[in-house]
Amino acid sequence: MNEITDMTDLLKSRNSWVFDLDGTLTLPMHDFAFIRRELAIPDGSDILEHLATLLPEEAALRHLRLSDIERELAVCAVAAPGASGLLALLDSTGARLGILTRNSRDIALLTLDAIGVRHYFDDNHVIGREEVSPKPDPAGILHLLSQWQTESDDVVMVGDYLFDLQAGRAAGAITIHVARPDCLRWPDVSDIIVDTLGELTEMLNTGHDSSHTTVS
Ligand SMILES: [Mg+2]
C-alpha cells in the first residue's frame, strides 16, 4: 500500500473532524505581542502558562483583561478562505465537527457566530481552556472522541500551529497543517500540509489533489 497516494482515501474515511479556531477557521486575529504588553507578560512567554504562575488574585485580574481583549477580537473575526465551504461539505457527509481552542468556549462561540459557521457546531463540541488542559495536551481531542463514542482512528485534527499538530499526533489523529506560505512548518507532526482550507475541500471533493504536500 502506498501511504502517499492513499492519504486522501484515508482522510475521506474519517468521520470526526476537530478544528483549531484562530488562524485556522478565521484569519489570524490574535496580536500576541499586544496581549503580552497589556497583561505585562514577558516577550516569548506562553500567556496561559505565565498567568498560571501568578498569585490567584493577580491571575484573576489579568484573565479578566485577557477575556476583554479576546471578546473585542472575536466580534471582528473574519473567516479564513474556504472555511465555510469545507464545513458545509463535511456537514453534508454527516461528519462530526468539533473545535479545540486555547481560548474560552464563550469567546469561541462568539467567534463562530462572527464568521457565520456556528450552526455547524454543537456548543458541547466547542472545547476551550476551561474544559480541558490546553493544547498541546491531547485531552480536548480525547474528550470529543469520548463524547462522540468513537476512536482515535476516526479523527482528523486541523490547525495552523505546532500545538494543534502535537495534540493531534498524541491523540492518534491524522494531522493537517493549514500553513500560510510565509509560516513555519512542522513536517514531523504533519500528515498533510495545505495552504488553504479550500485546498483541503478540493482534495475531499476530487480525491485527485495534486497541489498539497503529504508528509509520510
Ligand atoms: Mg491557531
List the helices and strands and how they pair.
Blueprint: H1 7-12, E1 16-19, H2 32-38, H3 47-52, H4 56-74, H5 83-92, E2 96-100, H6 105-114, E3 126-127, H7 139-148, E4 155-159, H8 162-171, E5 174-178, E6 192-194, H9 197-206, E7 213-214
Parallel strand pairs: 1-2, 1-4, 2-3, 4-5, 5-6
Antiparallel strand pairs: 6-7
Helix pairs in contact: 4-6, 5-9
Bound molecules: magnesium ion.
Helix content: 40-55%
Total helical segments: 9
User: Which structural class do the helices and strands define?
Assistant: alpha/beta
Question: Could you say what the CATH topology of the largest domain is called?
Answer: Rossmann fold
The overall pLDDT average reads 90
Rg is 17 Å
| CATH superfamily caption of the largest domain | HAD superfamily/HAD-like
Arrangement of strands in the largest sheet: 3-2-1-4-5-6-7
- Poorly predicted segments: none
Strand residues, percent: 5-15%
- Count of β-strands: 7
Tell the overall outline: globular
N-to-C span: 13 Å
User: From N to C, what is the helix and strand string?
Assistant: HEHHHHEHEHEHEEHE
CATH class of the largest domain: Alpha Beta
**Tell me about the biggest sheet?**
7 strands, mixed
What quaternary form is this?
Answer: single chain
Q: What's the domain count?
A: 2
The CATH architecture name of the largest domain reads: 3-Layer(aba) Sandwich
Brief account:
The chain has helices spanning 7-12, 32-38, 47-52, 56-74, 83-92, 105-114, 139-148, 162-171, 197-206; strands spanning 16-19, 96-100, 126-127, 155-159, 174-178, 192-194, 213-214. With 216 residues, it is α/β, with parallel strands linked by helices.
